Amino acid sequence: MKLDPKRAVLAILAALWLALATVLPAAAQAQTGTPAQTQAPAGGPQSDVASYQIQVTLDPTTKQLHGSERITYRNPSPDTLQEIWVHLYLNAFRSADTQWMREAGGEHRGFSASAPGWIKVEQFSLADSGTPLPLPGGGDTEETNVRVPLPTPLGPGKTLALDVRWTAQLPRVFARTGYAGDFFMAGQWYPKLAVYDRGHWDTEPWHANAEFFADFGNYDLAVTVPANYVTGASGVRAGETDNGNGTKTVRYRAERVTDVAWTAWPDYRVFTREVPIGSSQVQVEVLLPPDEAGNASRHLDAAQAALENYSAWYGAYPWPKLTVVVPPEDAGGAGGMEYPSLVTTGTNAPIPPGLPVLAQGVHMLEIVTVHEIAHEWFPMQVQSNEGAEAWLDEGFADYLTTRLLGRLYGFDSSVMDLAGLRQGYAEMMRGEAKALDVSREPLATPAWQFPSFNAYVATVYGKGSLTLLSLERLFGDERFTAALRHYADTWRWRHPTSADLQAALSESLGENLDWFFGAFVFGRDVVAYRVASLDAAKAVVERVGEVPYPVDVRLTFADGTSRTQVWDGADQRLTLDGGGRPINAVAIDPDERIALEMDRLDNARVLQPDATPAFALAGRWLAFVQLLLQLFGQVG
Ligand SMILES: [Zn+2]
Q1: Helix or strand or coil: residue 94?
Q2: Which residues are close to ligand 1, an ion, with C-beta < 5 A?
C-alpha cells in the first residue's frame, strides 16, 4: 500500500502528541489560597521529616497488597499540631463516581469499574502506647486525604510514631498505577502523611489533574512477591530472602526521598550501567519487556545523557541508583511517571513496527526518558507542591527536556528529523500552547482550577517551559543556568513556591523580575509584537501585548545587509528608517529569543520576497502552524 508521506508524518505527529498528552501528566492534590505569596519558612533543608518502614505482600491472584508500616514524623514547623492529614490515594479509583473520577470527566481511558482500586486502613495507632486514632469510616472511606485528630498535641520539633496496617486493591493499570496480568506497578499505594508547611496542612483531596506533595524522609521497604518475579523500586536493593514457600522478600532502602514506588513482573529483562557523576558512580538499572530488550542501549544512553547533563547544570544526582521501568504494551498507562530515583517511561511505540528509518528519526523514547529523569531534580529534590503550582514541576521538566534534546539532536530537530522534515520540541510546545490559546493562563494556577485537561497540559508544560526558555534567552545561557542552580541549591530538600523561585532568580541575576513574574506567572498579561507597516523608507513595529519586553528588531536592506537594534517596548510603536538605504524587510525578534510569544506570524514582513533570512524564518513558522492545525484537527 502506498503511503502518502505527508499523511504519514501527520499521523506520527498526532501519535506523538497523543502520547505526550497521555504519558506525561497524571493525577493529585495540593493546597488552597495563594501559597506563592506567603512567607517562606525559616531554616534550612528538611530531609528527614517523614520516614517509613514498610512491609508489603503482593497477592498476585487478587491483585491486593497487604501492608504494615511504621511512620515516624517530626514536626518541622514552629507550630503545635492538633491533627495530622493522611493520603489514601487509591480511593480515587474506588468507583466511577469518586471526586477524582468526576473531575476526570466520568471516564478515563483504561478505567474499568469492574477492576477498581481502593485502600482500607485496618489499624492506625500511636506506636508507643498502642492508642488507636480515629479515621473516617473506621479506615474504610472514599476520601483520598483524611483528617486525624491527635490525642496529644505535637509540639515544634517533636516526633510522632504511628503503626499502620492496611489492605490495598490495585486497579487494572490506570493513572500510573495497577496491574496488567502478572505485571504490577505500585504507585500512590500506601497510607502517606500530607504536608504541613507555612502554617497549614495540605488538606486538598487528590484531584484528577494534579500530582503530589510530600515531606522528605528515609524509607525501608520490604516487598514480598512470588519467587519468580523480577522487582524494581525506589532506592537501592538491600537484600533478598527466599521465604521457602514460593515467595521471596526483597528489601530496598531510600534516603532523603518524598516517596517510594515499586514494580514486579516475571518477564522483565534487566540491563545496568555505571555512570560516573562527580566523584561517585550512579547505577542505572533499566527494566524492559522482552520485546524491547533490543533497544536496551538506547534506553541506557538516554538515561546517562540526562544524568550527566542535569547533574552538570543543577547539581549532582544525589542518590546511588536510578531505576528506569518500561511497562509492557498492555500496561502503557503505567508509563511516563516519576518517583524518587525511579521513573517509568515508554518505547518508541508511536512508530509503526518495521520502519527502522522512522524509528531512528523520531525521538519519542528519548523525550519521555529525559523528561521523567528531569523530575529527579524538579520536584524530587526541590519539592514544590506539584498540584498547587504544577508548572514548577512540569514546566521545569519540559524546559530541561528542551535544553537536553536540543544539545543531543539540534534545537530545531529534537523531536524528529525525517527526510528533511524537522520538528523541535520547544516549537511543538509553542504550537500546543497557541492552539489551545493558553497564553493568558497564569502559570501559578492550581492544577484543578484549569478549565480543561488540555488547558492544564498546554499551560504548565507548554507555557511553563517556554517561559523558562525565554528567561534563558533574555539573560543568556550561562547566567540563567547559574540562577536556576542557585534556586536548586537554595531549595533542595525543601518546599519552594513560585515566589521563592522569583526571589532566588532575582538574587542570582541581580535583576528585578517583578515585571516578568507579575505578567506571566501570577498574571494574565502577554507579550506580543507585530509589524504595523513597511515601505522602502521606513518600518513601523508595534507592541500589541501589555508587557514591554526587550526585543530585537532587524532591518534588512535591499543590498542584503542588515541592522539589528534592541527596542525596550516601552512605547506602543517604534518607527525605524533606513538612513538613506532602501529597506527590504523587517523582523521582530528574528532569533526567537522571546520563546513565549505565541503568535509570531505577524513578526516579519518583506517587500521583495527573495528569501531573506527574516522571511524564511516566518515562512517556516507558518508552515509549522498549518501542520499543527491539521494535526489538532485530526486529534480532535
Ligand atoms: Zn512530567
Answers
A1: coil
A2: 24, 394, 397
